[in-house]
Amino acid sequence: MIRRKKEEGRCFNFFHFMIDLDQGPCAIKRLRGCGCGNEYVSVTPDGDIYPCHQFVGNDEWKMGNLDDETLDIEMKDKFACSNIYTKEGCKDCWCKFYCSGGCNANNCSFNKDINKPVKLSCEMERKRVECAIMIKVAMADK
């Protein structure tokens, strides 16, 4: 990527290295991540409410139903309270403000707990950010 840009004047975008290292997302996104279960939810055609589309069909994570006019506030609060300071291993990680503790659905699928990040995902995210920083430095005007 660097050689192509510097030597040939051509570039291409690779999503995984396109990280805003200067500003980044707002503070709440850095702390809590995507906002599933609070800032947005998924609603099925039957009116069932889930924290996000990746939880759909898993009755354990059903938050309520539009027709019944129900909403599990405790579950909503569980997601609201989940952040980089409550997630296992995040507090001391140098990359925490870029991944925000990973995907809650992914954490739940692999570790049965939204507050237990997937270690492989952590390693991949750290390498992704490391590469993005390296590219930014390499492309900086001297």
Can you summarize this structure?
This protein is of the alpha+beta class and 142 residues long. Helices cover 39% and strands 6% of the residues. The protein has helices spanning 2-8, 27-32, 73-81, 96-99, 104-111, 119-139; strands spanning 42-43, 48-50, 64-65, 70-71.
Q: How far do the termini sit from each other?
A: 18 Å
The dominant shape is elongated
Give me the side-by-side strand order of the main sheet: 1-2-3-4
Average pLDDT over all residues: 89
Q: Which class of secondary structure composition applies to the elements?
A: alpha+beta
Number of strand segments: 4
User: Helical residue percent?
Assistant: 25-40%
Spans of at least 5 consecutive residues whose pLDDT stays below 50 are none
Number of helices: 6
How does the major sheet shape up? 4 strands, antiparallel
What order do the SSEs take from the amino end to the carboxyl end, as H and E?
HHEEEEHHHH
Report the oligomer: single chain
Strand fraction: 5-15%
Q: State Rg.
A: 19 Å
